[in-house]
Amino acid sequence: MFRSIATRVVHNTRSPVINNARFLASQSSSATSAISFKKHIRQRRFAPVPVVPQPTVEDAVTNILYNTPAPSLQPETRHVLNCLVQNEPGVLSRVSGILAARGFNIESLVVANTEVEDLSRMTIVFNGRNVQIEQARRQLEDLVPVWAVLDYSKTKLVERELLLIKVSILGPEHLHEQLPTAKLDDDVEYEDEILNRYKNQSVAGSSDTLRETFSHLRALTELTRLFDGIMAMPRSPVHDHYEPQTEHSYEDSDAVDASLLPPG
Question: Residue ranges of region Disordered (predicted)?
Answer without folding.
Answer: 237-264
